[in-house]
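ESCALATION

Customer reports they have been waiting on this structure for their group meeting. Please prioritize. Original submission:
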Amino acid sequence: MLPTLPLLGLQFHPLTPYRLAEAALSRYETEGSATIVTPNALMLAAICHRPALRQLLAEFDLTAPDGDGVRLAARLCRRKIPLKCAGIEVGHALVRLAAERGLSLFLCGGRPGVAERAAKRLTDTLPTLRIAGVCDGYQGEAILQERIVASGAVIVFVCLGFPKQEQFIAACRRVYPAVYAALGGSLDVYAGDRRRAPRLFQLLHAEWLWRVLCEPRRILRLAPLPRFYLSLLANRLGLRPSRRRCDPFGKKI
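Update from on-call: job pushed to the front of the queue and completed.
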């Protein structure tokens, strides 16, 4: 049994990226399919007020805590997540395992050309990696699904943004069993179009700041987080700042 940690109605798996990737492949071998979701703090803030999204994420087989913002949310809920498990690192772990075991990979998402560049850079680094196919995120879902099925891929990276990528995986896995990983903007990094935060920013738990410095307009996307954290803090202190509060166990109170 894998360790789990309940938080905001989800069951997080506090594992290293490589261990999480191994668990996904093991589940695929025994169950026939596996799905990975990597919620960040913004996604947690969204599911507090949208039960349908909470249920959608809860149905994924493996849930990785993506970012220090999730760990902060856990602390405010009197929980402790020992380590973060960034989606981009989960992707790297799956790529390494795919290359080692001869498993094929499909890359789905991004702007036109991004998936192709990501595939080239990944295979340049790992020549034994088999890319079954690529498709940008501007195709219709029916076309994406058709290409994934035709590829015969064992592992599928879906990078369409939240919640579109999670909704797509939920539908596609019923048609084509595979190892699906919802990885947000990871393809841009794999393609070399965007840099991940330098090691110093990672050590300072400030990857979010690096992203804002690179793309100042991203600061607007962070607007829901102060209210989200204050709501969690109010719950912890037993206060009632509003009629509907966010409960760490996913209940409406």
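Sent to customer with the following note: The radius of gyration is 18 Å.
Escalation resolved.
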